[in-house]
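Subject: two folds for Thursday's group meeting

Dear M.,

Sorry for the delay on this. The cluster queue was jammed most of the week, so I only got both jobs back this morning. I'm pasting them in the order they finished. Each block is the input sequence followed by the predicted structure tokens. Could you check whether the formatting survives your parser before we put anything on slides? The first protein is the one we discussed after the seminar.
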Amino acid sequence: MQILVNTKTCTGCETCLSSCPYDAIVMKDGMAFINEYCQFCKTCISVCPDGAILEKNEPVSQDDVESVAKKLDSFRGVIVFAETVDGHLAHVALELLGIGRRLADDLGVYLGAALFGANKEAALELIKWGADKVFHCPDSSLNDFNDLPYADVLSSIINKYKPEIVLAGATAIGRSFLPRVAVRLHAGLTADCTKLEIESASRNLLAIRPAFGGNIMASILCPKSRPQMATVRPRVMKPGTYNPNKTGEIIEIEMPANKRSTSTRVIGVEKESLHGKVNISEAEIIVAGGRGMGSAKGFEILYELAGLLKGTVGASRAAVDEGWIPYNHQVGQTGRTVCPKIYISCGISGAVQHIVGMQSSDVIIAINKHHDAPIFNTANFGITADAHQIIPLLIKKIKEELL
């Protein structure tokens, strides 16, 4: 598509100049000219009083259409990157197998998992969690994460086996090296997805993620390139189903011969101590408070309730911004994504930014004195009341049951 100026009808009135938000229209020889900054928003077309600005669609031949379709049709299968921690499968790998299994079944293709540096037992576990094939590169140089060799091996696997979808966790590792793979393959990459679906008619992946600060959910497609790549936010998807009797194929992958040396190397790994810190991502029960708790003192009853339930305390961004609770308790788009068995929301209105961080919880209980609070649209159970009145009653009842 092109935006062109008809030099025969343009009168040089300059009306179009101020209409372009990209400064893509300039005057040349007394007439409007569209430069390389044009983003095809078409605003200028409607404001031109002389109808001199036109949209021109470049013709696409049937041969071109068939060539693209044939190229896309050569890609089949879904591959997930199986992240490991100290040689053991990370929880996000199991989550990817869960969503990967559903996507693969919808497409009628195999589900593969790319495993680097771990032992064969980890590869067998991936099969039991749903993988049909495991592409295992046991090279010891991959035991510690390094962007370049990881990108080398995954790119090699994709080039040889041509999957139509490639997924990784939106973790520090996935966010670090998967963009390198996408650039090498000239493929599209959607980051930080919270939902994935298949557009059945076209086999396109619908990658859904928060956009514009979490105010909308954007559905992103890459219809003209393969593989379709995405990173998935941890703790949003459910893990795959474990089947101890499932069988599959383990394909040994060698490190590419010309990629054994790299400009960077890992000389040591330092692990941050979690002593005294809260890891709400792993909690099975979370009692979370928002602006409705009123103050830091208001969170004291939440700590008491969480202690009785053997859970931990979470918070909305509003409560963290007020300084009532430290940032490492924050749940939401700019905090942690959680997936506990029980999530008790107290005085939280339910902004989209918070919802995307806890909507995958098994059971959501919301307490809010405003009956029209958005949180009730997500909750399994709702109580329209002041949390300062309800929480003490819960604490009292639990203590009675424990006696």
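Second protein, same layout:
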Amino acid sequence: MPARDHPPTSTPSELVDALASVLRPLAQLCVARGLPFGEVTEQLKRACVDAARAGEPDAARRVSRISTATGINRREVTRLLAAEPRPVTVRPRSRSVATEVFAHWTTAHEFRDRRGAPRALPRQGPGASFETLARSVTTDVHPRSILDQLVRLGLAELDPKRDRVTLVRDAFVPRGDALRMFGFLGENVGDHFAGAVENVLGDGQRHFEQAVFADELSEESMQQVHALVSAQWRSLVQAMVPELERLIERDRVGAEPTNRRLRIGLYTYEAQTPPRRVSDEPAARRKSRRGKEPRT
């Protein structure tokens, strides 16, 4: 069923179950990267105080009401309120020129071949060159600096003999850049989670959030799914990026405030299903298993 069709309210046990599902991968990340439990709880307490403070304009009774709303004792609330306040909403990151050049290279028709794949480009020249590509995005950063950044991130290669630049990856997932990967994690998952929470707390219509899920797939079928998803993502990017660039340019010269930000994502997750004993399944289900369809 669609993710947005959940009941408007949840029982405490359902909320706890949902929280456990969210916290498991977070705990895995913290343990794998050696983040102490004390730091995790500190960040959680700060987040709870920030959330409660956002809805508490009465400064005179703020500590008491935040303590009551969160269950954190008054002394801790006072300590946390005295600290530098953290933004309640996720702030957009500073502009990444490398990201914009990468996106333009994979979507602009003049830099793609007949199959729609990014073309290998001469490093310099007046035509469809990397220099032209970079300057179409910005004139504030030298094209060579942008190229060096893409090469460092493992996204492009430079052939010095032919003086040609080739894009070697079809998605902006920097290799060996842990700081940028942490940034992607926080921003992508943070925005997705924030949208899901706003849907649950509201009418379920604020943000688009849908998923298709299926089980009882073989490893061979999963590889075919990977290829299909990659193709769908390329189609989405090639359709969306030029349109977003057009809208940005239109709004830049318009009279309306440009104070809205947007993130559009596509994700997949796969895992091995736990073994299930045939005797545990109802007879009717055992007979109908071969006719199962993916669910949304």
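Two things I noticed about the second structure. The beta strands are 121-122, 156-159, 164-167. Confidence is low (pLDDT under 50) at residues 1-8, 88-94, 285-291.

Cheers,
T.
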